[in-house]
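Margin note: ligand = L-tyrosinamide.
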Amino acid sequence: MNDPITVSRTKPELKVERPKLHKVLLVNDDFTPRHFVVRVLRAEFRMGEEQAGRVMMTAHRRGVCVVAVFTKDVAEEKATAATDAGRQEGYPLLFTTEPEE
Ligand code: TYC
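Resulting structure:
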């Protein structure tokens, strides 16, 4: 006998998950000039002068500040590019990434 033909009556489950977002963090140090941190934030993260100044001062006072959130790859690219911009001028400026909860 042939196998009976069965018809699934349930829709296939769609498992489309949003990619987890990653934060780019600006880490304070004692050497990088404030105006240079602001310049890097403006150039790499397309921030205005005021917002860049606020982010820089938050990192300066608290030790660290969230700059932006992106997908993992973009967050890592941006953090590396911004850290390299400081290194090119001999500054220890550091941007890191971490996954959002
Ligand atoms: N603390 C630095 C200074 O006083 C400025 C600074 C701010 C450096 C934020 C890094 O992530 C930073 N010149």
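The pocket of L-tyrosinamide is lined by residues 26-30, 32-34, 37, 56, 59-60, 93 (CB under 6 Å).
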